[in-house]
Amino acid sequence: PRLANQIAAGEVVERPASVVKELVENAIDAGSRRIEVDIEAGGARLIRVRDDGSGIGEADLPLALSRHATSKIVSLEELEGVASLGFRGEALASICSVSRLELVANAAEDPQGGWRVVVEGRQMEPRVTPAPHPRGTSVTVRDLFFNTPARRKFLRTEKTEYGHVEEAFRRLALSRFDITWVLRHNQKIVHQLPASIDTMARERRIGALLGKGFLEHALHLDLGAGSLRLWGWVGLPTHSRAQADQQYFFVNGRVVRDRLVAHAIRQAYRDVLFHGRHPVFVLYLEVDPLIVDVNVHPTKHEVRFRDGRMVHDFLFSSLHRALAEARPGEQGD
Ligand code: ADP
Ligand code: MG
After folding, report:
1. Among all ligands shown, which has an atom nearest to the Cα of 117?
2. Ligand 1 in contact with 53 (CB < 6 A)?
3. For residues 87 and 76, is the Cβ–Cβ distance under 8 A?
4. Helix residue ranges per DSSP H, the chain
5. What is the spatial distance between Cα 42 and Cα 155, in angstroms, rounded to a whole number?
6. C-beta separation of 125 from 31 below 8 A
7. Which of 221, 220, 214 is nearest to 238 (CA)?
8. Pocket test for ligand 1, best of 68, 90, 92 (most atoms within 8 A of CB)
9. What pLDDT is recorded for position 332?
10. Which position has the higher pLDDT, 301 or 19?
């Protein structure tokens, strides 16, 4: 099982940023209201994700680290319309096969309760000992790839790896405004984002994560048609310093990179004559979970719509209309 875990780890754990994504998705699935991410040395030395979610009980702790142990899917039918982010039960097993992992959790209200389990490269049966922890879970991943030197060698500089971590954090924090987020790198707070879902608070968060300029030249939209709703912010071409990589698209709260979506947005941009401009956007598409599969692959952020054409047309026409109304020089005032 150890080798199988290390092979699986190659799929899920590419670099520190992928560990952050998996641990944070677990924290989100556990219903957390507050998630703190600590990073040292770009994540190669330490990654810690601390949450105030449901926690994990004593008996379930070793189970959480074993392969294909998931508490999230009961039947295959449930895969349709699955709402939780993880469901394969391989992330923690994969991560602990290539790191020194410590899990401390408390599933009860008793603040003195809590249990701890430590594994190093998965070489032994995990032993569970009492350890106080407030309700919730802390996972600490040290020395990523310490036992797979070939992979450790592929880690880039601290700055590059940290950049990937921050980008993963940005996507996650943009996906859930109702959660309070903290990101620290080498003990310094980089982002502290209080939970709030009113529009001004959302815009404050976007400003903090993407820079203030993003919103100064962005159009806020909120459009619905039938069971589809599209809302968010689209950059206008007056934003001359827009970074081309500021493209965030979420489907039912899950970040997605999809050709059909990208095409619809590009097409709408081009039609409104924003020539040569890279579209920048933070957009949220909400659809009936039954007409979309967001769990095609654990890491590739792919999505499969039951009726892709309909979704494409909705995106294109919504954006086209909103952008045309905001076209420079044609505004009412
Ligand atoms: P998956 O998320 O696909 O179920 P993981 O390997 O990521 O698989 O996690 C295994 C299990 O450990 C989860 O199903 C969940 O029961 C438990 N778990 C992991 N992280 C947390 C957390 N932060 N809070 C509560 N439970 C957790
Ligand atoms: Mg998971």
Report:
1. 1
2. yes
3. no
4. 2-12, 16-29, 61-64, 91-97, 149-153, 158-175, 199-210, 212-216, 259-271, 308-325
5. 10
6. no
7. 214
8. 92
9. 41
10. 19
ipTM (interface predicted TM): 0.99
For ligand 1, is residue 57 a contact (CB within 6 Å)?
Answer: no
- Give domain limits for the chain: 2-193, 209-325
- Ligand 1 pocket, 86 CB below 6 A? yes
pLDDT at 98: 93
Predicted pLDDT at 331: 45
Band the pLDDT of 275: cuts 50, 70, 90.
low
Å from CA of 168 to ligand 2 middle: 15
CATH topology of domain 209-325: Ribosomal Protein S5; domain 2 (3.30.230)
Q: Which CATH number fits domain 2-193: 3.40.50.1220, 3.40.640.10, 2.40.50.100, 3.30.565.10?
A: 3.30.565.10
Q: Is 70 in the pocket of ligand 1 (CB under 6 A)?
A: yes
- Evaluate whether 2-193 and 209-325 have a shared fold: no
Structure tokens at 178: 């109702």
Look at 149 and 293; give whichever has higher pLDDT. Answer: 149
pLDDT given at position 143: 97
Pocket probe for ligand 1: among 70, 73, 117, the residue whose CB has the most ligand atoms within 8 Å is: 70
Report pTM. Answer: 0.90
pLDDT digits (tens, 9 = 90+) for 213-227: 888 888 999 998 888
Contacts of 201 (CB under 8 A, 6+ apart): 177, 194
Distance 89 CA to ligand 2 centre (A): 6
- The torsion defined by the Cα of 285, 289, 294 and 296, in degrees rounded to 10, comes to -150
Sign of CA dihedral 171, 173, 292, 236: negative
